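Box S1 | Example of a co-folding query
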Amino acid sequence: TNDLWNLETRKPLLECNPLNAMVLKYMTLKKTNLCVAVDETNKEKILQTIQSIGGYVCAIKLHADIIDDFDQSFIDELTTLSKHHQFVIFADRKLADTGNTVELQLTHGSLHIADWANVVTVHSVPGPPILQSVLNIIKQNKALKGSLLIASLSSKGALTDAEYSKKSLEMANDAKNVVSGFICQKRPSDNPEFLYWTPGVNELKSTDGLGQQWRSIEDAIKRDGNDIIIVGRAITQSQNPVEVARDYASRAFELWKSR
Ligand code: 5FU
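Box S1 (continued) | Returned holo structure for 5-fluoro-uridine-5'-monophosphate
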């Protein structure tokens, strides 16, 4: 019902989850439910982009494995920017392996994600053990505070059908201390304890010719019931990323509040 989705009612429910508490604080303080996907391949460019749009986002999403010169200095500067602008650092790693491997992927290698990312994406395809392993790492008091389970993907022909989304939801319901919310197209549940993050948003184009499927901010939030829009190229490759980010953030936030 609408009541459950009223922010006053929902706030204490969301705050039970440390990651959601952090996201919600930034969302309300900065009046933004925009997460920008900064898919650039060198650290200077990424940091410059974040510097310019950081005031308009509640989260910055990165694919660390596409950064040519990823190193500790990048992590340090990213962390400083996140504290200055107040946003969550989101690693879109899409973990999808057996438990032991996932623990190693979060803590070792050149990316050691759990040391700098506050939230990471996880595929539900390996089943419940993957969430136990993510929890083991969250308990180590590193930067990592939560995860987002992928209920559905935005790409054309994705195998994540309604049944898959439903099973992902069941996995999340059994692991609320690990799963803070979902990556989804349509919100897979009416449970107000989770945050629903959606990629595939672009006001000007509907596809990139490589299988991505974009829809409008209004469809993403009102029709599909999501909380946070994840926007990449519509902002990062626009003529004026700062203005477009400000515009997407204010439109998305109005729609979210009036839903
Ligand atoms: F899980 C998903 C998904 O289903 N679709 C996505 O597009 C993640 N993404 C990411 O969101 C994708 O990897 C990009 O980093 C981002 C969308 O960027 P775009 O430029 O708006 O397409």
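The pocket of 5-fluoro-uridine-5'-monophosphate is lined by residues 37, 39, 63, 92, 150, 153-154, 183, 199-200, 202, 212, 230-234 (CB under 6 Å). The beta strands are 34-37, 59-62, 88-95, 119-123, 146-150, 179-183, 195-198, 228-231.
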